[in-house]
Design goal:
164 residues; alpha+beta; three-stranded antiparallel beta sheet; 5 strands
Length: 164
């Protein structure tokens, strides 16, 4: 199957998209598209367009076809729960997501599942916070995960500017 790649420079760094005819496969900051063609592709351009709208404050929900790489069943269930139940401008704690997913995963394992998210922002792992603060974030440019998470939450109005 042919996979395509393109990227754009957002307020939180260069974001790349890997996609093919079946849908978006990956979104991320440090994508290495070694096996992908850097060529015009409708799915990649649609994803980039929706991401640009999100960053411009013009999009609250994504309507992209996803073709995620194989995920563990529990990981997929937690990510689906997050995508389906935590909307734009909302947050949920690691513990609340663990309970809501019904998977029996302990709260401390939710962070690892968020780090395995192949399509951050579209599946909004940045909306998962610690019960006592912001929590971690593996997205963003190297060393800027917390700053990226803070910006995304502020952009959505889920976090007052400068609170953290």
């Amino acid at each position: 199957m042919m996979i395509f790649f393109d990227e754009f420079d957002s307020q939180v760094g260069m974001i790349g998209v890997l996609a093919g005819p079946a849908g978006v496969r990956r979104i991320g900051w440090r994508l290495q598209p070694s096996d992908a063609l850097r060529a015009p592709d409708e799915t990649v351009q649609q994803a980039l367009g929706q991401l640009r709208e999100y960053f411009a404050g013009q999009r609250r929900e994504f309507s992209l076809r996803l073709d995620l790489p194989p995920l563990e069943e529990v990981t997929e269930a937690v990510l689906r729960t997050l995508a389906d139940t935590v909307g734009y401008g909302e947050t949920i704690t690691y513990g609340e997501l663990a309970t809501r997913s019904g998977t029996g995963v302990p709260a401390r394992a939710i962070g690892s599942i968020m780090a395995a998210n192949p399509v951050p922002i579209v599946i909004p792992c940045h909306r998962v916070v610690a019960s006592d603060g912001l929590g971690g974030y593996s997205g963003g440019e190297p060393g800027r995960g917390a700053e990226t998470k803070r910006w995304l939450l502020e952009n959505e109005g889920a976090l007052p500017p400068g609170l953290w």
